[in-house]
Design goal:
heterodimer; A: alpha/beta; Rossmann fold; Bifunctional carbon monoxide dehydrogenase/acetyl-coa synthase(codh/acs), Chain M, domain 3; Bifunctional carbon monoxide dehydrogenase/acetyl-coa synthase(codh/acs), Chain M, domain 5; 4-stranded mixed beta sheet; B: 657 residues; Substrate Binding Domain Of Dnak, Chain:A, Domain 2; 4 domains; 6-stranded parallel beta sheet
């Protein structure tokens, strides 16, 4: 820390803490000490304060203790001549800054409840999204965990022009980074500049306008802090571990654009505690020696065309850029971008025309690698706002290719097309839906580029399993129908084959340790009848991934000797888990919730919990924000059992697993399920009824309570009794 | 005495000015005596054996030529002791004396600590609760929900017991890196207790006992370790608990801190328990009023030697000067009382004081001086004892003569760099660790770390050896940690302010200093606090990336102007803890090539650390730098490293924090 930076950061911290104190005093006068405060829908209170200090701020009155801590931490100003060492005090001042800013923002939520939007998207009148709730945290957190998003850039201020802002943002997006925005420079704000430049902002495009003031920086830091607690399983208050976790695993950095004020310095000093360096476009002093961050701490005066590359280098981040020969920007960050209304140039599928996607294997000599054929009109042959039918037929061949891999390759089509800026893709198989924006068309994007994307990306990611690939794109009705028929026949064959697979007849399961970047002791093992708890990976995906990279995050796990058939325990699985969890977990029961169930990282789709009074089990999906009969909301549950722990009585699982045959088989299976949210019932209803019928209770779903019946065990038990829920007649769940 | 002649005595202008004044006023002092007495050449080389009454036997090497085998055979004492045995015995006795001194200091602290815990020493308290608890945790003392006093009683008994322990190992050995502990056990030098090793050293070196120099010198390591990881460490740790762990503060140094219009009291020696109370008593309003009644504007407390360092580190009490300035402080004519405790107090003080109004007040029953006033300090009535002493000093103000001259030389300095503080300074409250230090050593901004410690010696130019060495080291990007009188020499020369980094340090070290806001030369404390350097070195090992033992670290130690037996004990515990250690001035075993060879070469094979002797401070600095470079090479950090960029797979490989 240079003396100038430390002096400014400490001055800034004093100002911000004083501001928080004033705000708090005013608020307490107005609302009283018992007024509840907090960020919306989170189990982590004010997350920096909770994570670092272990203090829960639930009421205005709770803030007093935090302010006292701030005062205790705030160092005296740095003297001009013979200063005492200032690095450590400046870092401490940065911490006090974040605590104070969280208080300021929480008071804002109290005083102006509509200042920030809820959810992921901006609106016409408001672009400020405020604190990410736990649903966003978990949904987006998975991207951090599996590497789709390696980190984030926290941008303060504004670029010199909206065009430059758009350029910097796009460059960050192409590196798959999230962009968290706060504060203004000369009255201009980066987020507003992006909107002016016509860039889509919001969580879906990874360009997140947190807030207009510098204090909104805490939403970025709070996100990082929660990642350590929810995915890393670190206890609140274990500040050292939380900070080092972030230094090692969350590749974030701060990018102040414009004049760096004392308050900005204070925020920058705070971020360095997390190992997040500062990369500035102004000639502020540099701090090059390393130690708190992995490499340099403050690097300055970087030209705008080099600032993203510099930031990534300083943070020590390796990003493999997709080299795709298309005339638009390409990357995971564009996946969430939408194309609608006036902006649509071409639309295919979505119920308006037919659209189908199909990957099929051919003999080596039938395929000319890289050949892309468009049969029918190209986008340039039609007027803006047109519709066309579309069939994407991908033909692959290779010595290692197996029919099992066809659906895996096929499932890539969705996101691979979506990654192209200006292309929006929804669905798969014969219900696919594509929109191409006018912007993309204007930049030269054509339908044949879909072929180019698939050729380049599938080769890049899956070259171990095939050698050659060619793509045919049909845009004439009769061709599309013909492909659709052939594809449907292939889908049926696949479905039957998958449905027929059982855990008993399979000797090899697969591990998934993708999440170990964030939850170092967590090990998923995935079998045909139990998909990964994140819902993203099934047995077949893992098999393919393991073929592609045998030493990667998905490895073959020979089941070995059966130790317990009912609860699901195998010697080979135990051995693997012990090793892969770095000796933290020596066994778990695959199909159980009561006896040492499988570990859970932070990213499960649903969490099941035992309801002892009902002799059953409930499950809740992460989109459900309400209370549940186990006494905890989803987010509290996830916070309690996440981070690679095995917690008897609780288990994380995917939505799909609910209707798989091995769901909680140890305790009696699906018949134990007594409560689930209504939306989940609707979402998985069809498959549920089918499975319930197999079990001989076709109306089981109607006998299961939901939040409209009650959110306590006492409230739902009469309903279950009245409906004669089968769980009530099963043996006691807690033997 | 001509001014030109004085130039070669010191490089410190305040010192030169007072040597001049002393000469003018005919006042005796060490500089002047050193000129008259030349060192005994046979004793200096370790060739004189006065252990029994058959001698003293002198066994000098022939001068300026190689010794013949015949001469070598005949070069023995009456009992047949070889030059090797004689040099080794003398050397081990020095270690024993040094260890006994630090041990006795530590013992006094341990007993005081126990008294405080048992409520028998009102006036003192447990100031650093955190350190108490962490030490209790370290040593397995139950914490539970017991009071600090209860914990302290158990801890105090445990530590007092270390001195008289007869078997097993010293408790603090466990703090060292595991590999280091194994080395100690392998060579049989893990001390059992503190006193027992000193006693055995005296026995082994008695006439006709251990007469195998390898064995003697190896045992010397055991005695030295009983100092560094025993007496000294106990002393430092307890002082931190009862007086507070030092944290950075700004103060001043040199004779210019004395005040013409105030009662000047100098505290001098090594044990701070009295000085702590003098600091309180001298600032009591009644006492200040009393001083005013005698015509003084106030009471000015200033320190000398390591008592000064202790008071500087914890309270910012200014320092009047280092070892060779003790008499010169009196020569200013402005010192009402020089209050001394133990160690490094020249008897000449009494003589010097005779020429002025200054009262030399001895306060410790173990250290009386003929011609001085003795006012026994009673720890059980500490504040009362202290008040009596301050009162005596104030009473003496009116006796000040007219020949007062306070040199107008003083420098600002930052002190207070304890191990705990360094840990905090490198990462703040929430990320405290040695990581940034290790990181910047690995990336080469900091080439290595040197401890430059020890005394002054009038046989070499006062402060010059230190200054040339330290400047050479920091210029070459070596971070310097200092204790004792050498720390003071750097302080006086302005090296202990952060601005010194840009002026004197190499670009790499300067950039780190600028980042952290520290001087390139850190004041770590008194000579007993060299134990802090052991803890710091261990912390560097434990933080990782620099090997798994202290001997793997790119570090070195030096005492360019040493004179006391404590310096030899300190050097020996550094060497046997794995540190290359170079001494200046003179070397007490040169009379035996074999014994010297064993200390300088063989010990490296045994302990990873070894001694060296080089009177030229710049050359010595380069020996240290060469050693640091050798260690860097062994660690593979001698070349620039590629920046590692992390992808997700690499992040998955990371161990959980």
């Amino acid at each position: 820390m240079s003396k100038i930076i430390a002096s400014a950061a400490i001055r800034g911290a004093h100002k911000i803490v004083a501001r928080a104190e004033n705000k708090w005093r005013e608020a307490i006068d107005k609302w009283g000490a018992n007024e509840p405060v907090g960020f919306p829908n989170t189990a982590y209170y004010l997350p920096i304060i909770y994570g670092i200090l272990g203090m829960k701020v639930e009421k205005l009155g709770d803030m007093e203790a935090v302010l006292k801590r701030c005062q205790a931490i705030l160092p005296p100003p740095v003297k001009e001549l013979h200063p005492l060492p200032y690095l450590a005090p400046a870092l401490d001042a940065g911490m006090a800054t974040f605590f104070a800013e969280e208080l300021i923002e929480a008071i804002r939520y109290l005083e102006q409840p509509n200042f920030y939007l809820r959810g992921e998207d901006i609106t016409e009148g408001n672009i400020w999204l405020g604190a990410a709730d736990d649903i966003i945290l978990r949904k987006r957190g998975i991207e951090f965990v599996d590497g789709t998003a390696p980190g984030f850039a926290a941008i303060l201020g504004a670029a010199p022009t909206p065009e430059m802002a758009a350029k910097i943002a796009q460059e960050l997006q192409q590196k798959n980074l999230y962009v968290f925005m706060a504060a203004d420079y000369n009255g201009k704000r980066f987020a507003e500049q992006l909107i002016e430049a016509g860039v889509q902002v919001g969580w879906p495009t990874r360009l997140v306008p947190f807030g207009p003031d510098v204090s909104a920086t805490v939403f970025a830091m709070g996100f990082a802090t929660r990642a350590a607690m929810s995915f890393g399983g670190i206890e609140p208050g274990d500040y050292r571990k939380i900070l080092i976790y972030n230094k090692d695993r969350v590749f974030a950095f701060a990018m102040p654009l414009g004049y760096v004020t004392d308050e900005w310095y204070a925020n920058g000093a705070g971020a360095i505690n997390w190992g997040f360096p500062v990369i500035a476009d102004t000639p502020i002093p540099e701090v090059l020696p390393t130690g708190i961050c992995t490499y340099e701490h403050v690097v300055s005066n970087i030209p705008h065309d080099k600032i993203v590359a510099k930031a990534v280098e300083v943070r020590g981040l390796k990003v493999s850029m997709a080299e795709v020969p298309v005339p638009v920007a390409y990357g995971a960050a564009f996946e969430g971008e939408r194309v609608r209304g006036e902006d649509i140039y071409l639309e295919c599928g979505g119920g308006r025309t037919h659209m189908v996607e199909w990957v099929t294997s051919k003999r080596m000599d039938e395929i000319e690698d890289g050949k892309i054929e468009l049969i029918g009109p190209e986008i340039s042959d039609v007027q803006p706002g047109s519709r066309l039918p579309l069939a994407i037929a991908v033909e692959v061949a290779g010595r290692e290719m197996q029919p099992d891999y066809e659906p895996i390759l096929e499932r890539q089509i969705h996101h691979l097309i979506n990654y192209a800026q200006g292309a929006m893709h929804i669905g798969q198989r014969d219900i696919a839906w594509l929109r191409v924006s006018k912007g993309a068309f204007g930049k030269g994007f054509r339908l044949h580029h879909i072929g180019a994307i698939l050729h380049a990306k599938l080769h890049q990611d899956f070259s171990r399993i095939f050698d050659k690939i060619q793509i045919k794109l049909y845009t004439k009705d009769e061709d599309v129908l013909k492909v659709t028929e052939a594809a449907r026949a292939a889908y049926r064959v696949r479905d039957v084959r998958i449905e027929g697979m059982t855990d008993e007849t399979t000797d090899i399961f697969y591990s998934c340790t993708l999440c170990q970047s964030f939850a170092p002791s967590h090990v998923c093992v995935i079998s045909p009848e139990r998909t990964g708890l994140c819902g993203s990976y099934n047995w077949m995906d893992c098999k393919a991934a393991s073929e592609i990279s045998p030493t990667g995050a998905n490895q073959a796990v020979p089941k070995g000797e059966v130790l317990d058939a009912q609860y699901g325990r195998w010697k080979g699985v135990d051995d693997f888990v012990f090793k892969a969890s770095r000796s933290k977990v020596d066994h778990y029961y695959f199909y159980s919730i009561v006896n040492d169930p499988m570990t859970t990282c932070g990213c499960c789709e649903c969490i099941a919990a035992v309801l002892p009074m009902c002799n059953g089990v409930m499950t809740v999906n992460r989109e459900h924000t309400g209370e549940t009969p186990c006494g905890m909301k989803f987010t509290t549950l996830a916070g309690t059992i996440g981070g690679g722990l095995s917690t008897p009585g609780f288990v994380g699982h995917s939505k799909y697993y609910v209707c798989q045959r091995k769901f909680l088989m140890g305790e009696g299976g699906l018949l134990r399920l007594v409560w689930m949210p209504k939306t989940l019932k609707e979402e998985i209803g069809d498959r549920f009824r089918q499975r319930a019928a197999e079990l001989g209770v076709p109306d089981l779903l109607d006998r299961i309570a939901d939040e409209t019946i009650g959110v306590t065990e006492e409230a739902i038990l009469p309903f279950l009794t009245e409906k004669e829920h089968p769980a009530l007649n099963l043996p006691p769940i807690l033997g | 005495m001509s001014p030109g002649k004085n130039e070669i005595k010191s490089i410190d202008p305040a010192t030169l000015e007072m040597i001049e004044k002393a000469a003018q006023e005919g006042v005796p002092n060490a500089f002047e005596r050193a000129e008259r007495i030349s060192p005994c050449p046979i004793g200096a080389d370790g060739n004189c054996c006065s252990i029994c009454a058959m001698g003293p036997c002198r066994v000098p090497l022939p001068r300026a030529r190689e010794e013949t085998p015949e001469e070598k055979k005949r070069r023995r004492g009456v009992c047949g002791a070889t030059a090797e045995t004689i040099a080794a015995r003398n050397f081990v006795r020095k270690i024993a004396a040094g260890t006994a001194s630090h041990g006795d200091h530590g013992r006094v602290m341990a007993k005081l600590f126990l008294d405080i815990a048992e409520g028998k020493a009102p006036g003192y308290q447990i100031k650093d609760e955190q350190k108490l608890l962490s030490l209790a945790l370290d040593l397995g003392v139950k914490i539970g929900d017991r009071s600090n006093e209860e914990i302290a009683v158990d801890l105090g008994k445990l530590l007092v017991n270390e001195f008289g322990k007869q078997e097993g190992e010293l408790l603090f050995l466990k703090r060292a890196p595991l590999k280091r502990q194994e080395i100690w056990r392998k060579w049989g030098i893990a001390p059992r207790g503190i006193d027992i090793e000193v006693a055995e050293a005296m026995h082994r070196t008695h006439m006709g006992t251990d007469q195998e120099y390898h064995d003697l010198l190896n045992f010397g390591s055991k005695v030295g370790l009983a100092d560094g990881w025993g007496g000294s460490m106990i002393g430092t740790e307890i002082q931190d608990i009862i007086f507070g762990t030092p944290a950075p503060l700004l103060s001043q140094i040199n004779l210019g801190v004395l005040k013409e219009d105030e009662v000047n009291i100098i505290i001098h020696g090594h044990e701070p328990q009295l000085a702590e109370m003098l600091a309180v008593a001298s600032q009591e309003p009644e006492m200040i009023a009393y001083a005013k009644s005698k015509g003084a504007k106030g009471i000015n407390l200033a320190g000398m030697c390591c008592t000064a360092n202790e008071m500087l580190m914890r309270h910012g009490v200014p320092i009047a000067g280092n070892f060779l300035q003790q008499e010169l402080a009196i020569v200013t004519g402005a010192v009402e009382a020089m209050v001394v405790d133990v160690q490094c107090i020249m008897q000449g003080l009494a003589d010097t004081a005779n020429c002025y109004h200054t009262k030399v007040i001895t306060t410790d029953a173990r250290a009386k001086i003929q011609g001085a006033v003795h006012m026994q300090f009673d720890e059980h009535h500490a504040i009362e004892s202290a008040r009596a002493i301050v009162r005596a000093a104030v009473d003496n103000f009116v006796n000040r003569g007219s020949n007062v001259r306070i040199p107008n030389h003083k420098a600002d300095m930052i002190a207070g760099f304890s191990h705990e503080t360094i840990n905090y300074l490198l990462g703040g409250m929430f990320r405290a660790s040695y990581r940034p230090l290790n990181d910047n050593i690995i990336n080469g901004r900091i080439r290595g770390v040197a401890g430059v410690v020890g005394c002054n010696n009038p046989r070499t130019i006062h402060d010059q050896g230190n200054l040339l060495m330290v400047k050479e080291l920091i210029k070459n990007d070596v971070l310097v940690l200092q204790t004792g009188c050498m720390a003071m020499a750097s302080g006086k020369a302005g090296l202990m302010v952060p601005e010194a980094a840009a002026e004197f340090a190499g670009p790499g070290l300067a950039s780190v200093c600028e980042a952290v806001g520290i001087p390139p030369v850190l004041h770590v404390g008194a000579c007993i606090d060299n134990s802090r350097l052991l803890i710091a070195a261990t912390a560097m090992v434990k933080d990782g990336g620099l090997g798994d033992d202290i001997s793997d670290l790119p570090v070195a130690g030096a005492a360019p102007e040493w004179m006391s037996e404590k310096a030899i004990a300190i050097g020996q515990y550094f060497v046997s803890s794995g540190v290359f250690t170079v001494f200046g001035t003179t070397w007490p075993t040169v009379g035996s090539k074999e014994a010297t060879e064993f200390l300088f070469k063989d010990m490296e094979q045994m302990y990873g650390g070894m001694w060296a002797f080089e009177p030229d401070p710049v050359k010595a600095a380069h020996m240290m730098i060469d050693h640091i470079d050798k260690k860097r090479k062994a660690l593979g950090i001698d070349k620039a490293r590629e920046r590692v960029l992390y992808d997700m797979a690499m992040r998955r490989e990371l161990e959980a924090v």
